Amino acid sequence: MKKLIIINGPNLNLLGKREPNIYGSLTFTEFLEEVKGKYPKVSIDYFQSNIEGELIDKIQEVGFSYDGIVLNAAAYTHTSVGIGDAIKAIETPVIEVHISNTFGREEFRHQSFISPNAKGVILGFGLQSYELAIQSFL
User: Fold this and answer.
1) 125 Cβ neighbours under 8 A, 6+ residues apart
2) Does residue 101 have a known ligand-binding role?
3) What is the domain count for the chain?
4) What pTM did the predictor assign?
5) Hey, which end of the chain has fewer CB within 10 Å, N or C?
């Protein structure tokens, strides 16, 4: 059985409430239950934190034992050299995911410290971006 983890960064705990015109009205918990139902033969764990160091700790913790990491570092994508370095240091492949098309937003969101060390990047497909990332590991 493939063992994957979705790691979400800051403010993604507010999905369903936060800017529904950009992020939709589904909570991440609701979405995760749907995805787990679609892939019953895949172990999908989940972690979310608003704290950069906790995200780095989780990446290091799972980065040698999981088959894949689906990472939406949210705003830290554009600011965190530390998260980028953590991805570079681990063996588990990482798919960078974004709900919105970051290139259609503010210019500072066009820079990613994750992308250079990620296996791939999926953005702009709403919550389906996560499912596309999961499919890439299967």
Assistant:
1) 99, 132
2) no
3) 1
4) 0.92
5) N
